[in-house]
Each structure stands twice: as C-alpha cells, then as structure tokens.
Amino acid sequence: MTPIVSYKKITKVYDELEVLKGIDFDIYPAEKVALIGPSGSGKTTLARLLMTLEKPTSGTIEVEGEYLWHEEINGKLVKAGNKHLRKMRKDIGMVFQHFYLFPHMTVLKNVMEAPVTVLGMSKKEARNQAEEMIEKVGLEDKLDVYPSQLSGGQKQRVAIARALVMKPKIMLFDEPTSALDPELVGEVLDVIKEIADEGDMTMLLITHEMDFAKEIADRVAFFNEGVIAEQGSPEELFNNPKTARLQSFLSRLN
Amino acid sequence: MSTFEIFIALVKGGIQVTIQVTFFSTILAVILGFISGLARMSRYKIIRFISGAYIEIFRGTSLLVQLFWIYFALPIIGIRFSPISTGILAIGLNYGAYCSEIVRSAIQSVPAGQTEACIALNMTKAQRMRRVILPQAFTMMLPNLGNQLIELLKSTSLVSMITLNDLTYQGNILNATTLETTKIYTMLLAIYFIIALPITQCTKFLERKFSEGRA
C-alpha cells in the first residue's frame, strides 16, 4: 500500500535548537497513528509541518504522492507557492490544543464559516452540513451560543465539528485534551473515538492519554529528542517497550 | 450681549465649518489609518517603508506646522488647496498616522492561534483578514479610535489659523468686538463638549455591539 503521508529526512531547526533530526515516517490511508513522547520531543512540530503552519528546514513531505512544501515547475523542484499549498491543504484538517474557535461567531457560524468562504457553499447547504456535524459532537442545543459561554470540552467538540465539516482525509489532533479539566477529557475522547470508529479517516493523534492511544491507535510512535525512538503496535509499545527511554517515559506516567 | 446671543452667534457662524472639517477629516484619517496600518505589516519592504515614513513624519511634526506648510508652502511649488481642503487634508493626514498605529497594534494583538485556525481551514490571507482577524481587531481598536476622534475634533480649532471661519475663529472675532471673554470661551468649551458627546456615545454603542457574546 502506498502511504498517504510520507515524511522524508525531515529536519526542523529553530534558531539553535534542532527539534526534528531527520525524520522518515509514513502514514497509510485510514491508519490511526498516535504520537507520544515528552514535551519538546518534536511530535507537535511534525503535525504542524503537515498542516503547513511551519516550514521544514530540510527534507520533503509527500501527501497522496505529491510534494507538500515543493512543487515541480518545468521539471524542477521549487518552493511551493500559495496556490499549491491551498490545494494541498484541502485534504488536511487540524484540531488544536487550545481550540482556537472564532470568539466573534456563534457555534453554528464557527462551523459554517469555512464551507461558505473557502468552499463557496450556499449558506443553506453549509448550515445543513454544519448542523449535522454539531449534532455529531452532541452540541445541537448550543448552535447560537458564543464560544465564551462553553466549557473547554464543549469548545473542543465545536473545534472538531469545524474541522470535520471540511471533510478532510487526514485529521491531526494536537493534544486535544491537554488543556481540559480532567472531568471534561472523556467527552472529547468519546467524539474522537467515534470518528476513529467510522474508519475512513487517516488520523494523527498527539496525546498524553496513553490509555486512549492504546484504544484507538493502529500504530504508536514514541518521539524522543527529535527522533522516533521506537514505534509499533500499541501492544508492543506499551506492554513490551524495548528502549530504555520509552521504559522510563512509561514508568514515569504510571 | 446675553449668553444666549453669544451662543447663537458662535453656532451660526462657526459650527458648520467645525463639523464639516471634523467629519471629512475623520473619514480621511480612518481610511488612511487602515491602509497604512495594513501596509505597515506588508510582506514587501518598500510598502512597509513608505507607510513607516508617512507615520513617522506626520506623528513627529506639529499639526499646526503641517497646516501652515500645506497652506503657505505648497503653493510656492504650484500646489494650492482651499482653506477648507487644507484643514481636512492636514488633520486627516495627521490623525491617519495615529490611527494607523492603533489599527496595526490591534491586528497584531489578535492571538496567533486565530491565524493558525484559518490556515487549517484553508482560508486565504484576504479571507482570514476580512472574516476573522479584522472583526476581532476592530473591537479592540474602537476605544482608542474613539479617543482619537475626540482629539481630532478638538484639534479642528487650529483651522482658525488659516482663516477658516470655525467655532474658535468665530469666538475670537466675537471676543474682539464684544470683549465678553469669559462668556464666549466658556460657551465655546460647552459647544465642543456637546459635539464630542455623540462621538463618545457612538463608540460605546459600537463597542457593545461588537463585543456581543464575548467574555
């Protein structure tokens, strides 16, 4: 099977700090991949590069067989322009740790915004689809409420609906529950689980919730100091960690 | 002259020019403020430089001198404006420079996460400015813009120096003929205050309207 996302020799350097040190990593269609590891190990950066929020320092990323950050013009590989990036982003969606809902729009407007402005959908059609997604995350009674009146868990569920309505093939979840009060984590994980169970979507989940990673992931990758130190099925990784780094990481969580 | 007669004489003679200059220079200042505020953040160095130069020049020199310069110095190189156009232009340019800093700082204080959310939703730069960043920045800039407008109104009294018959000019004339100094200038204070009231109220109204639903 050909990968839907393929990172090749990816590095990312901020000033002096090398956050990613030559990552080779493939993600397959419909695969659910969990990225775990200590803070600052580079897992969030990996997702941000794929969402085109940050540019790799070197290396290439391919999405569905096409370069993400480069495009071929007259047989030469050059830096991708805006048009290319917009085309590539169509299939990728992201959910952020801090939600980033639009505070000046109601729940419904938040979810309708991109279908109308980006896809040029009619208001009526966008409204239907938005309502469907909001219902899916269980917030149909909050349509006309502003984000400031929602709990963290509800905000994150709206953010998930907002990303889903664009029908991405690949969804990135960047620590979706890390900013939530413990009692609100469950409702968000339930929604993510539901999406995962539908099966079609390729998912990259960055998380500190090991039980959840174990539950939904087909594959888990452990990041440490800018490299993937170990990867495999959840059973392999959690029950039988091979590297000392992963062993100590897991033991510190328990 | 009774207080009432002074009031009538001031308003009749000068209020039209004051309001006209305030109104048109406000429009000019706000437009210039938005254009140069956005230009300040352009990715092109030359555009940033031009807008930076404009802002620094007009903030860094006195409005009165700018007024004189446009009125007395420009005609020497063949550019001539009527007194009222001079007043509107000078005040608009001067306050536009201040407004642009308000616009820029408000836009920059919208959290970076908002931009990232827009990118993740595949919005273009123009779409995200128009639909997400500016509406939020606008709420933040309103109180400061309101303050600038009141400053602008008060500074219109300077146009009396280039022979424009505004409230202040009218006050000076009345003072010279009647010598009712206390009454005239107290009345003048009151009239400026009354004109400023709707501006304050309007800003407050907009602030409430645009921050609807937000914490």
CA-based gyration radius of chain B:
20 Å
Shape estimate of chain A: globular
With helices defined by DSSP (H or I, 4 residues minimum), what is the helix count of chain A?
9
Question: Quick check: average pLDDT of chain B?
Answer: 92
CATH architecture of chain B, please? Orthogonal Bundle
Question: How many separate domains make up the residues of chain B?
Answer: 1
Class of secondary structure makeup of chain A: alpha/beta
Shape call of chain B: flat
Helix fraction of chain A, binned, reads 25-40%
Measured as a percent range, the helix fraction of chain B is over 70%
Helix and strand succession of chain A?
A: EEEHEEEEHEHHHEHEHEEHH
Which oligomeric state applies?
Answer: heterodimer
Distance between the termini of chain B: 54 Å
What's the main sheet of chain B like?
A: none
In CATH terms, the superfamily of chain B is MetI-like
**What is the CATH class designation of chain B?**
Mainly Alpha
Beta strand % of chain A: 25-35%
How is the biggest beta sheet of chain A arranged? 6 strands, mixed
Discrete helix count of chain B? 8
